[in-house]
Amino acid sequence: MHMIRKSERADLPECVKVIRNSFQTVADEFGFTEENAPRFTAFATTEDRLAWQMCCEHRLMYLDEEDSRICGYYSLRLNGDGTCELGSLSVLPEYRHRGIGGALLKHAAETAREQNCSVMKLSIVEENTILRKWYERNGAVHTGTEKFDFFPFTCGYMEIDLEKADKVQASVRYVTEADRDFWFTLDCHLSEAEFTRKVRDQMGYVLVSDDQPIAVLRYSLFWDSIPFCTLLYVREKEQRKGYGRILMEYWEKDMRARGYGLVLTSTQEDEEAQLFYRAVGYRDCGELNLPFPGYEQPRELILGKAL
Prior knowledge:
Blueprint: E1 2-6, H1 12-30, H2 41-44, H3 47-55, E2 60-66, E3 69-78, E4 83-91, H4 100-114, E5 119-125, H5 129-137, E6 141-147, E7 154-161, H6 162-166, E8 171-174, H7 180-186, H8 192-201, E9 204-209, E10 212-222, E11 226-234, H9 243-257, E12 262-268, H10 273-279, E13 283-288, E14 300-306
Parallel strand pairs: 4-5, 11-12
Antiparallel strand pairs: 1-2, 2-3, 3-4, 5-7, 6-7, 8-9, 9-10, 10-11, 12-14, 13-14
């Protein structure tokens, strides 16, 4: 069972383990040690430090539990000027690529809004370009860097405009015959006949913003019983604005209303889409290899999400 809940004082020893183990992978990758970077999170986080942050700084602390095991954590420090600072967003290495980090970041943004914050700030190891790109995919903007003598790396600073992120407006509807021309500007794999069936069976969706269609999603039934998203595409200039997440959430809600308890999707292993799907809660559950002449392609990753 998965849940995000507020951290209690008694949870802090486990939170320390999650933070230290999570940041240790960064330390290992970039060569940080207790000798050359004693203030780095992997080495400096202690129960006393978290207790002080909770009781004296009044930081909001939340953790992610998977089957009663604490495997994720974040804190928020409210600055009193409409901004807050995200601290120590962590996921245990063995629980990564399951969408937990994305769920924690989304929860942090929602919590910050509830506290009347308009901007959420965060810091990263600037050299960790993979993490920077992950935050950028989730709406963060890079704002600067700073070098400290006590760190063997550069501190990078980012922030998320919570008001802008909250104002993404769009509507989703079933695809209609009138969408045919637009649909095929984004979907080059579907046949004309199959498009007609998607319209008839209401197995395709169009996302509209400012009265303009900008994204599409279609699905089929795996084993004739499990909804399988076979295409999600957002017009290129509208990507990274939250529309893909809106469309996926709408489809999942529709599938839940139709009585389904599980949905699937897939993406090639060399495509960045896998990062998006994991960020919205999908988990790897299989793969497909096609070693047949004329059908060869990179390995296809199968991902699923329980509704």
